[in-house]
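Contributing: when you submit paired examples, paste them exactly as shown. First protein:
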Amino acid sequence: MTAAVSTTSMLQFESSMDVDKLTYEIFSILENKFLFGYEDDPKFSVTKEHQGNPNAHVADFFDVVAGAGVGGILAGLLFTRGKDGEPMFGAEQALKFIVENCRKFSQKSPGGVFQRVFRPSKAEKVLKKVFGELTLKDTLKPVLIPCYDLSTGAPFLFSRADALEMDGCDFKIEGVCGATITNKAVDLKSIDGRTKILAVGGGVAMNNPTAAAITHVLNNKQEFPLCKGVEDLLVVSLANGESDAGVGSIMSTPAAFVRIAGDGAADMVDQAVSMAFGESRRNNYIRIQGNGIVSEKQIKNNKENRNMLMIAEEMLAQKNVESVLFSGKKLVEKTNLEKLEMIGGELIKEEERRKKSIVPTVVLKVQGGSPSPRSSSATTLSTLSSMSVLG
């Protein structure tokens, strides 16, 4: 199984973190309910205990994670190996970290060009405290986190697979996370000092890294030898909501234009991926998107500032939207919640298949050791991204 995470860049990080919390609330729901079952619903009665691991994490069910912007930090938190060999953070702990430290990552800009300006010194201190000297080699699964390299004028994709191949592609996790959220140029060097980049946020380079994650899996025959095409993938995308930047205002800020451009690029990736899956998109490619249901403006107008979990559940209750080639976007019969429930069931079934299969279709690279086989009858790809900041 593979997982990809995409989210808004720091340029879009100019609004209340409450909006971004929606994605993490949804991810927490996915971890605590869909993967391990509902206590009050026998239909989803498969629990952590039933899986034989009461401390199971989302990372245990996926093979690849890709994340841009804040999603890159989330990917690092959820898929970096802790001292006990398990993921450093669960979904709830990752959410708490993001919310508690968002003000240290950015501050108000008096000039107003970007309402929030990246604070590299404070962000570096926070990320350094969490990740220490850990590098891409210390991640549990294949990790893909993009930034934009100003020195080459092209996107740069940090990759665990590449890091395990050569030190020139290995970077400290704290530097990788800082690079993918920054809206200021940040110098970054590889562990051996041979690779140098001048990085700005991953959301500028690759706001929706789903295609990059799929490309990585399909072309990485060493780790995914039996994955022949998209029919062997299950893609779940918790995607950016549609931006309402500039609505009701004649003048829009540069940051708003960046958001709009990012939304457009993410939608293009969505259309391309949907086209690639063809008729199998209904079961193999799932995209969960806010579609403008909840914006920062709506939250601000609500004096009681409703519980984010309630808002997330409202979004999940909406009809799912899928992209159809030459037909635009269409509402489907199932809700976002029902789609996630289906995925939760498929993830558990896949894990059971892997336990019984004697043929390893996923052979993950391991630092300083032999590849780690993970038997399965299919490879699953999940894409997670936070809601874009609306308003």
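Second protein:
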Amino acid sequence: MMHEVQVPQIGESISSGILASWLKKSGEMVEEGEELFELETDKATMSVPSPASGVLSTSAAEGEEVQVGQTVAKIDTEASAQAARDGHAANGSEAEAGGDSGSDSKPGNEPENEALSPAVRRIIAEHDLDASRVKGSGKDGRITKEDALEAAAAASRAVTPAASPAASPAAAASSTAPAPAAGERQTRKPMSNLRKRIATNLVSSKQTSAHLTTFNEVDMSRVMELRSTYKSDFEKRFDVKLGFMSFFVTAAVHALQHYPEVNAFIEGEDILYNNYYHVGVALSSEKGLITPVVKDADSKSFADIEAEILGFITRAASKKIKPDELSGGTFTISNGGVFGSMLSTPIPSPPQSAVLGMHSIQKRAVVVEDEIVIRPMMYLALTYDHRIVDGREAIGFLNTIKNAVEDPARLLLGL
């Protein structure tokens, strides 16, 4: 029996995606639930599992745009698993026989060319790489496109005269851009769907909104003290760590309830007020910036928020985050502080009217009751659409967040 593999429904407003890579090749035996291919949309990259066990036969190529519901492969569920194993055994015997013919034979643990995806084979060929020396991060040690690109970049740096022989392996793997050929001073790399989406959204936001940014600073002393005192008990009770983001999400909801214009957006000549609070939390992923949304954040506890954000991070890393989790936000929080940013002017994501920027915590001298003291301070930035939010409202909104974070008891008591 032939079982069709179709592109799954991936979101309410998403009808197509790019088949980024096959994780299994035609003729291979696959198991139900085993990851078959990666599907890239303008929001995220997700792995699609096999709907059945059997022998795979693909009909769509890597890099091809595919529609939701389109058949991209078939699985012969009646094919004998034993036949597939016999085929592997025969290949192993041939490889063993070839290995006895001379010292130039390949090591037994070298990946066969046929086991590599077309994209990986192309990169390995272009950069004259030894596939047996490329460490695979995919399933069962399979070499992914990113693995090949990292190996190519590392190989290029290894032969660069200015490169230090003691360079860190972590630094060697920090870039996934293709290495330039000898003599070339530029490298062209196609933009991913996610990067295109980010570019389109940000340019659209700048061109269609009247952005203005207001700043303030917040004393993080009490939040840090509260977190230090209860973080161990919190983790034991809720099985999740207590971070700063739950404080800011809760404070943002508190401020949005007092300043509804910040939670609204313009549609034509009307202002639409959202009577719910879906707070986006910007995260950095392998493919770029993504913003999963904590839905109905006003109804969630600190533990709920922390657990949800941890889930987003985990699913984004394993490419299992769903496009529906990345849409529907009414307000966004971006934390550039995790990268060491001291100050920035974030850009709202349409149709949202505002975004809050968090930054790094730094000890600074401040005046408290006429005395100079050292406090852990963070700059906050609120970029807003001045067409709908006035300066008075924006400043009041930011002050509400500042007061809530500086006195977290107000958040816990709902004041």
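If you have annotations for the second protein, write them as plain sentences, like these:
Residues 93-112, 157-175 have pLDDT under 50 and may be disordered.
Residues 194-413 form a domain with the Chloramphenicol Acetyltransferase fold (CATH 3.30.559.10).
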